[in-house]
Amino acid sequence: VFNKGSVPSSVQASFPYIFTVSKFLQPGPFDLVGTIVYEIDQHPYQNTFYNGTIEVVEPGVLFSMESVFLFTLGIALLVLLGLWINGQIQNLSKKTKRSTKVEVGTKTTDASMDEWLQ
Known about the structure:
Strands 1-2 form a two-stranded antiparallel sheet. It is an alpha+beta fold and 118 residues long. A hairpin with a 2-residue loop joins strand 1 (28-40) and strand 2 (43-56). The protein contains 1 helix and 2 strands, in the order ββα. The protein has one helix at 65-93; strands at residues 28-40, 43-56. The longest helix has 29 residues, at 65-93. The radius of gyration is 42 Å and the shape is rod-shaped.
């Protein structure tokens, strides 16, 4: 791309470059390092440069599996929280009924009133 480019002495130059990554490369941050080979007075030189971190992303993905999972997890936690709050409100708003006391077998009776026992 830069073949036979000429830069005068004591002058800086910038050259745009385009690169592509393999489709098998996983998305994530990478450091971009390059080497430039040049010649001054017919003596070859080379310099290595660091051009910061680049971010490799998947092209055209509307939803990633991670975002779908996190969204589903968030909705599930909100539903569980809602059910718990609903149960707490129902427990607090229940009216407690007072049941009438029923005695069975402890009443004192006169045995003479029970004719069937005689």
